[in-house]
TrEMBL record:
One MF annotation (Gene Ontology) recorded for this entry: amylo-alpha-1,6-glucosidase activity
Gene Ontology terms: biological process: glycogen catabolic process
Upper taxonomic lineage: Bacteria, Pseudomonadati, Pseudomonadota, Alphaproteobacteria, Hyphomicrobiales
Residue numbers spanned by region Disordered: 469-490
Keywords assigned by UniProt, alphabetized: Glycosidase, Hydrolase
Bias-annotated ranges (Basic and acidic residues): 469-481
Name of the protein: Glycogen operon protein GlgX homolog
């Protein structure tokens, strides 16, 4: 292989092997020169350094004849070191290719990784001349060839989707029936044992916390902790190497293909809002050294400083066309090369923020919505950040679903018995149409959850009232302060059977609420059998059994029973169309005489009046939904909710029909049975689901009733 570079091509960006050589292309608007640095297979010795010979449309490029896949490389960028004008070029710092598709090694922390001299009186205005290459990971030239055979995306309709949120590593680290070297990797994710579990539950998609290559924060390493969650991206095209049991990218593709064969979709949690380089005082690893003023949003009044809308020190400048191109190229790459089925965008508000604030018509959203590849996959946004106007739940454009934290908080508050929750829980049960029923959006736009990776597990939400985060090394100051949880009398573990019974009832009631609400349900991995983090509600740094899923719980009698209960809930959701309705219901249609498509009642079976809705002392609620079925039938489902501390007698709303009790969360193992008469005792902190079928009459449209709390 010669080290003489030919001009090559400015596209595609990154390193592209064509069988005869490798084309290198990297964007920088402000660099004066970019050097390609080649390394020996160990990555320890730089064996060649040569300037990329051409620059076209602000892309430096060159072609290395004879180079092959497997070559290790990096860049060095020459240009002004002028932080006060946003420029931080320092050719002493080896830079990772933003388009690197595989990475060798990891960041080994030392002061040499910073473009300035740490501890200098001039701070980041100083200049560091030490070579950072010994502590930097290197990019690897890859060959993306793979035989996908007859792989096809499951294309599960949104209305039938049930998401299982999991951390790739933590999900299987404690699975004794998986080979030790495969635990915590893609091989384990798609192992027969795990696929059997997904199928037994009935989930249709796994949503993985970040699997893009990320950095272990220096502060955490020095404290003996790890960046477990992975929200600290180093490269948007490369997977985290330790998630590969054999080091091969093929492992991901095999895993996706196996999951697809089982009808399971793969959704990636992606972090395009910030990078691992942190604030202006952070290290120079890639983007900062290539073109700081293009890749990052900088303060208008002083371009020395990064805008920090993310709380992590920097904000990726997706308003820049080349930076937006990188994000789009990354998303398409994961769909095209790995066949993933969707993305969940961390801090999605940041991505949609333009100079004047959040804009659902921003360049980022517009680019995705018109893209022929991306518009056919599932798109989910986390609709908040810490920037100005940072809470935008319900304000994203059509085509996007959104994490609904109001759903989580409402369900927790309702079931712990808070007063005044009737209107709020009613809106959440009905798909949060008060938030999402605009611009022809559908109920699936609300991603409903009662627990996620960020916060308490479901078991902890019923066992702790105070966060227990001391292990994070932040004096218990991190994590949410208000979790709307209850310990029901004892903080943490207890042997008190009465308290354990209350906790179990509350957990089952919340799970039933989740699966019987309109919208897209998301289940946190392990909640189906009572996983705990011992009260830690911000376990981002706990790469240990605190965060890992404890599968011994799944094998316990209580764990097996709860898993079977969750599977039953999902089967019921799949069996009844009205539980996964494709459109919002507003009580304006009458599928059967005297039966509206959605209506609300008290425990006596009487329609709620305006006064009853506003009575903060009343807590029980009955929701009835109906639809037009086949052959002139009108299936009716009635959900009775009793969050109080006492058993209550509920009366089924008229008309009187033969009715089946499909589920009673107080008796989760009880089979379906006929309802005798028109009343039923709903136990304390429990829910009951009833089923009946009426004969549909001529459809009549109704004006929205005065208690139409789910409409606009």
């Amino acid at each position: 292989m010669t080290t003489k570079l030919e001009p090559g091509s400015p596209y595609p960006l990154g390193a592209t092997w064509d069988g005869l050589g490798v084309n290198f292309a990297v964007f920088s608007s402000n660099a004066e020169q970019i050097d390609l640095c080649l390394f020996d297979p160990s990555g320890r010795r730089e064996i060649a350094r040569v300037a990329l010979p051409e620059k076209t449309d602000e892309v430096f490029h060159g072609y290395l004849a004879g180079a092959r896949a497997g070559l290790l490389y990096g860049f060095r960028a020459h240009g002004p070191y002028d932080p006060q004008h946003g420029h931080r070029f320092n050719p002493n710092k080896l830079l990772l290719d933003p388009y690197a598709k595989q990475i060798s090694g990891e960041v080994r922390w030392s002061d040499a990784l910073y473009g300035y001299r740490l501890h200098s009186p001039r701070g980041d205005l100083s200049y560091d001349r030490r070579d950072s290459a010994p502590g930097m990971p290197k990019a690897i030239v890859t060959d993306d060839a793979f035989n996908w055979g007859d792989d096809r995306p499951p294309n599960v309709p949104w209305s039938e989707t049930v998401i299982y949120e999991a951390h790739l590593r933590g999900l299987t680290m404690q699975r004794p029936d998986i080979l030790p070297h495969e635990r915590g990797t893609f091989a384990a994710l798609a192992s027969p044992q795990m696929i059997e579990h997904y199928k037994r539950l009935g989930v249709t998609a796994v949503e993985l916390l970040p699997i893009h290559a990320f950095v272990q924060d220096r502060r955490l390493i020095e404290q003996g902790l790890r960046n477990y969650w992975g929200y600290n991206t180093l490269g948007f095209f490369a997977p985290e190497q330790r998630y590969l049991s054999d080091g091969s990218l093929t492992e991901i593709k095999v895993a996706v293909r196996r999951l697809h064969a089982a009808g399971i979709e793969v959704i990636l949690d992606v972090v395009y809002n910030h990078t691992a380089e942190g604030s202006e005082e952070g290290p120079t690893l890639s983007f900062r050294g290539l073109d700081n003023s293009s890749y990052y949003r900088l303060a208008r009044e002083d371009r020395r400083y990064c805008v920090n809308d993310t709380g992590t020190g920097n904000t990726v400048n997706v308003s820049h066309p080349r930076v937006l191109q990188m994000v789009m190229d990354s998303l398409r790459y994961w769909v095209d090369a790995y066949h993933v089925d969707g993305f969940r965008f961390d801090l999605g508000v940041t991505l949609g923020r333009e100079e004047d604030g959040f804009d659902p018509g921003s360049g980022f959203f517009d680019a995705i919505r018109q893209d022929p590849v991306l518009q056919r996959v599932k798109l989910i946004s986390e609709p908040w950040d810490i920037g100005p106007g940072g809470y935008q739940l319900g304000h994203h454009p059509p085509g996007f679903a959104e994490w609904n934290d109001r759903y989580r908080d409402s369900v927790r508050r309702f079931w712990r018995g808070d007063g005044g929750q009737r209107p709020e829980i009613a809106a959440r049960l009905a798909g949060s149409s008060d938030l999402f029923d605009r611009r022809s959006r559908k109920p699936w736009a609300s991603i409903n959850f009662v627990a996620s990776h960020d916060g308490y597990t479901l078991a902890d939400a019923t066992s702790y009232e105070r966060k227990h985060n001391l292990a994070n090394g932040e004096d218990n100051r991190d994590g949410h302060g208000e979790n709307y949880s209850s310990n029901w009398g004892v903080e943490g573990p207890t042997d008190d059977e009465a308290i354990l019974d209350i906790r179990a009832r509350a957990a089952r009631a919340m799970l039933a609420t989740l699966l019987f609400s309109s919208g897209t349900p998301m289940l946190l991995a392990g909640d189906e059998f009572g996983r705990t983090q011992n009260g830690n509600n911000n376990a981002y740094a706990q790469d240990n059994p605190t965060s890992w899923v404890d599968w011994t719980l799944a094998a316990s009698p209580a764990g097996r029973d709860l898993t079977a209960f969750v599977a039953r809930l999902i089967r019921l959701r799949a069996a009844h169309t009205i539980l996964r309705c494709k459109n919002f219901l507003h009580g304006r249609e009458e599928p059967a005489p005297g039966v509206l498509d959605i209506a609300w009642f008290d425990e006596a079976g009487l329609e709620l009046t305006a006064g009853a809705w506003n009575d903060g002392g009343e807590r029980t609620l009955t929701l009835r939904r109906a639809t037009r079925g086949a052959g002139g039938s009108a299936p009716i489902l009635t959900l009775m909710l009793n969050p109080t501390a006492d058993d209550r007698t509920f009366r089924a709303p008229p008309p009187a029909l033969p009715t089946t009790v499909l589920l009673d969360t107080a008796a989760p193992d009880a089979p379906e049975r006929p309802l005798e008469g028109d009343t039923i005792v709903v136990a304390a902190r429990s829910a009951v689901l009833l089923y009946a079928v009426a004969s549909s009459g001529r459809r009549r449209n109704h004006a929205p009733p005065p208690n139409d709390l789910t409409g606009e």
